[in-house]
Design goal:
The complex is a heterodimer.
Chain A lengths: L3 E2 L4 E5 L4 E7 L4 E9 L6 E7 L4 E4 L2 E6 L4 E6 L8 E9 L10 E2 L3 E6 L1
Parallel strand pairs in A: 2-11
Antiparallel strand pairs in A: 1-3, 3-8, 4-5, 4-9, 6-7, 7-8, 9-10, 9-11
Chain B lengths: L4 E3 L2 E4 L5 E6 L6 E8 L3 E9 L2 E5 L6 E5 L5 E5 L8 E8 L8 E2 L3 E5 L1
Parallel strand pairs in B: 2-11
Antiparallel strand pairs in B: 1-3, 3-8, 4-5, 4-9, 5-6, 7-8, 9-10, 9-11
Classes of the chains: A mainly beta, B mainly beta.
């Protein structure tokens, strides 16, 4: 059962334009969401996160939006740069009150290619 | 500040053998988690350790085991290797259980032939 889904395996955008990566989840017990970026042969690098009590979190060119009622979150990258080309993973975790721990549940990733 | 260190980076083993992978967390980090990454399944949770105790375990067979030492270093062991165990094994550390600051290592690429 895939609790975190990234339905687009790949996305291609032009440099300077907006990249929108989407993620859906099914478990309503998740209360914290993270985005990671991964280059080949390297470990994932944390990008940005959002708590379920918020609907938006912004950090420079990166903004994450959370729609709890739709169980959907998205990562916006504006403007996109060629160096942003990587695989992006969405991850979720339960809060400690919901019996959570450090376990992250990951989506399968979306490969973003930013063309110069 | 040194990051999460995983050794070895690459490993080739034969079916039926066993393997031990090592992870040294960032100094001061007490929580260590392990993940398996495969092309078809993405990143899947293996275990989580905090203060030498396993707090959570993923849906993997008993051939996969782990432990954490008093200095927070962690090892995972896979016995009776199968071809399907070929994957990138990633370790992540964070300061404590309630902290969301996960830092991943570069992983160990295991190939089973």
């Amino acid at each position: 059962d895939q609790q975190v889904k990234q339905n687009s395996p790949s996305l291609s955008v032009q440099e300077g334009r907006i990249s929108i990566l989407n993620c859906d989840y099914t478990n309503s017990m998740f209360d914290y969401f993270l985005w990671y970026k991964k280059y080949p042969a390297e470990g994932p690098t944390f990008l940005i996160s959002i708590s379920s009590i918020k609907d938006k979190n912004e950090d420079g060119r990166f903004t994450v939006f959370l729609n709890k009622s739709a169980k959907h979150l998205s990562l916006h990258i504006v403007p996109s740069q060629p160096g942003d080309s990587a695989v992006y993973f969405c991850a979720a975790k339960k809060g400690l009150k919901q019996g959570g721990s450090e376990k992250l549940v990951f989506g399968k990733g979306t490969k973003l290619t930013v063309n110069p | 500040k040194a990051g999460v260190t995983q050794t070895p980076r690459y490993l080739i083993k034969t079916r039926g053998q066993q393997v031990t992978l090592s992870c040294s967390p960032i100094s001061g980090h007490r929580s260590v988690s392990w993940y398996q990454q495969t092309p078809g399944q993405g990143l899947q949770f293996l275990f989580e350790y905090f203060s030498e105790t396993q707090r959570n375990k993923g849906n993997f067979p008993g051939r996969f085991s782990g432990r954490q030492f008093s200095n927070s270093r962690s090892e995972m062991n896979v016995s009776t290797l199968e071809l399907g165990d070929s994957a990138l094994y990633l370790c992540a550390s964070s300061p404590d259980v309630a902290n969301y600051g996960y830092t991943f290592g570069s992983g160990t690429r295991l190939t089973v032939v």
